[in-house]
Amino acid sequence: MERTIVIAFFIVSICAVVPVLYYYQRKNPDPRFRPRFGEMMLMSILAFGFCTGGAIFMGSIMGVNWDPEKMKQQLSKPSSGGSDDDDDGMFGGGQQSDEDQMLDTIFGSDR
């Protein structure tokens, strides 16, 4: 699966770079000042390298590693769903801090 994403990003990046290289080759109206074959080959190799690196980078970020065994284990566990009474909440719950206890004594617990 991860290779498919890398190949897709590579194809998209090559399709984006080819018109840029063509424009770079034809940008000057005077043919004497246009880049020669060697310069275009160097630019093409550099663009190919950047496309390959970018495709691998984006593929590793966007890629999904499917592990069927791990998914089965996660699906077999009961979910808490947030309806348990002993749930400590988002920040771990536990005892109230001294400041919270003081505010509860001053203003009441239903503030």
Written overview of the protein:
This protein has 111 residues and is mainly α. The protein has a domain at 2-66. The chain has 4 helices and no strands. Helix 1 runs antiparallel to helix 2. 3% of the residues are buried.
Count helical runs.
4
- Report the order of strands and helices: HHHH
The N- and C-terminal alpha carbons lie at a distance of 53 Å
Shape: elongated
Please report which band the strand proportion falls in: under 5%, 5-15%, 15-25%, 25-35%, 35-45% or over 45%: under 5%
The whole-number mean of residue pLDDT values reads: 78
Cα Rg: 29 Å
Structural class, please? mainly alpha
Helix content: 55-70%
Largest sheet: none
**Counted beta strands:** 0
Q: What are the low-pLDDT stretches, counting only 5+ consecutive residues below 50?
A: none
Using brief descriptors, characterize the structure shown.
mainly alpha; single chain; 111 residues
Would you summarize the structure shown here?
The chain is mostly helical and 111 residues long.
Task: Indicate the topology.
Blueprint: H1 2-26, H2 37-62, H3 68-76, H4 98-107
